[in-house]
Amino acid sequence: MIHNLARDVQAFTANVFLVTGETTALVDAGANFDVVSRIESHVDDLDRLYLTHTHPDHVENVAAVRDAFDVETWGFDPESEYVDHPVADGETVQIGDDGYEALHTPGHKPDHLCFYSRSAGVCFAGDLVFANGAFGRTDLEGGDRETLVESIEYLRRSLDEDLDVIHVGHGPSITERPLDDVGIAIRAAQLG
């Protein structure tokens, strides 16, 4: 089961996905709201915290989650204060009941990861792509439009045709023909 714990939050935050199962995990921690109480309304314990990237709106709540659940974090950049365990491109991590392949997808931020499970038909895309073909900003530190286009193309090549949903860092998850939105994002980012 996947719950977006930030769905109705009226503050600047990223989406925060709680995935229950064999390995109960959080994908991103969000910012500017009490994520701990929202986690506790679903589960008693948390096994892992995965970070798509370390922009403040995705990691501000990391300390509170670490303290409340004595949980460690996984992300791309081992030098980051938010990352306890580095995750390499192509590495498989356990989220819920499924293995997810980590895809290093810089361009929005150099440490950006997407997590994709072929068996579950689910992708956590962070701020790489959004609904309706939108894509991550490249005007922040470490952002690069050409690199972002390459990363979106890499994501598209990695996804199977039977993909069911892309959970994004902001806004609604992509549940209808998600591969189409990735294709639109490629074209839009190339033009931008």
TrEMBL record:
Co-factor requirement: Zn(2+)
Keyword annotations: Hydrolase, Metal-binding, Zinc
Keyword Cell membrane: no
Domain Metallo-beta-lactamase: 13-170
Organism superkingdom: Archaea
Keyword Transmembrane helix: no
InterPro entries: MBL_Glyoxalase_II, Metallo-B-lactamas, RibonucZ/Hydroxyglut_hydro
CDD domains membership: metallo-hydrolase-like_MBL-fold
Recorded GO MF terms: hydrolase activity; metal ion binding
Protein name per its UniProtKB record: Glyoxylase, beta-lactamase superfamily II
Organism: Halobellus limi
Organism lineage: Archaea, Methanobacteriati, Methanobacteriota, Stenosarchaea group, Halobacteria
